[in-house]
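**Backbone geometry record:**
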Amino acid sequence: MHYSIGEFAALGRVSARMLRHYDAVGLLVPASVDARTGYRRYAAEQLPLLIRIVELRDLGVGLDRIATLAGSSDPAAELRRVLVERRVELEASVAHDRARLDRIERRLRQLNGETMSKVAYRPIEPVTVYAARAVSPGSGPEHVGPVVGSLVSRLDDALASAGRPRMEPGIFWYEPTDDRLTVHVSYIAEDDPTPGAGYEVVDLPEVAEAATLIHLGDMTSIGESWATLMEQVVADGYRIIGPTREVYLVAEGHDPGPDWVTELQAPVARRPIGD
């Protein structure tokens, strides 16, 4: 038994236009095409394939992946692989959407003044640190995170090999250069610091005035805290004039947790009137 394109489309609950598209990409070719009129006819045996295509498209599976299923010598096994792959993709998507929703909730609470301390302006004393640095290919967390993790491990190992103490708090600072970001990680040095292999002694200068903000918790929302600080700096008539810092006041171990307390610091100066 054969069906016209309209009949076949109705059975599969798709449009005739979509059937023509499936034909054009070679996914579901009509059983026959009238040479004179161009009318397409579909066989009853093609209906299970159409139903499978519709089902998988509704699940968000791409046509290219469906094509591998249609041409498989073991359709049942291939269908299982397709569904498992799609489940993994959807689970990742749900996790990302959940993270975005959490960020929205945190931002709403911040706007309501419920979860974040206010930006404060104060001087920062000079400090000498043991530091290591590396260049991140970008400023986003997907670039900076791996660089920071590697740097911290490298600095820990270098200080341990040199017999130098690892004194808290850790201080990280960031210097943008073109499209890249130089990342520095450091620990407070003792009174008579000694340089060594794998680290350097750095004197962080006094900052006459810095905008500061306390960030509570892990690093998943630290970008939002930085955004809050920078928005307030602009609103208060300041501009940022040097590398920003993160001072890890409470940080147990190297895996950020809910109990971490981080002070964000940005050196600032008053914007000229009319700027």
